[in-house]
Each structure stands twice: as structure tokens, then as C-alpha cells.
Amino acid sequence: MIYGLQLVLLIFAAVGYAGAGVALAVSRQRKLREGERDLGMVGVATMLSLFAILCTLVAVGFAGVLAFGGVVLWAGYLFMAQRIGLFRIETGGPPSTESETSEEPRRTR
Asked: Is the residue at 32 inside a domain?
């Protein structure tokens, strides 16, 4: 297969997987806030996933669905879930305990 066609198919697949992850995050937020499952978003996620799976299968085979699709779907879900406030991912140093910050170092004389 021509490498250009494989690249285009994988770009389409990446968009489909990322969109499916976003749709799942929005569906989960609505389930948590309103108490009812948003079947429209689940349908959109299913449609985008099927499209992306077909593109991936044609481009690289079944291993690509798990290796490429799983990662892109997961990343799309995480970025959108963080953006809409389902959870927060923080980076930084280890948390300090109060005992370490409140004690002053002792000086020996």
C-alpha cells in the first residue's frame, strides 16, 4: 500500500478515536450531573469508533487498533474529562507535610 494512503487513513483514524474519547467524556459528565445516560453521545462515540477501527484495519491491521486506537481514545477521553472538570491532573513536586514546614532547624552551640 502507498505510504501516503496509510498516513491519511491513520490521520482519519486518529480524529475518529479522539472524537470518540471526547464523546465518552461528555456522556459521562452528563450522567454524573443529570443522572441520565446521554444515548446520543454514546451513539456518536460508537459511530466514530467504528469509522476509526475500519480506517486502522485497512491501514495497518488489527494490532494497530489496540496499539494506536487505544492510546488515542484514552488520551482524547483524559484531555476532555480534565477540560470539563471531571478530575484534575496536577504536576509538581511531592506534597510537603505540615510537620516538615512548621519545625525550625535546631542550631547547636
From this structure: yes
**50-65 average pLDDT score:** 95
CA dist., res. 94 & res. 92, Å (int): 7
Whether 106 is in a domain gets the answer: no
Residues 44 and 26: their CA atoms lie apart, in Å, by 11
Q: What region does 2 belong to: left with phi over 0, alpha with psi -120 to 50, or beta?
A: beta
Cα-based torsion angle of the residue sequence 36, 37, 40, 45 in order, rounded to the nearest 10 degrees: 150
Number of domains in the chain: 1
50 near 57, Cβ under 8 Å? no
pTM (two decimals)? 0.77
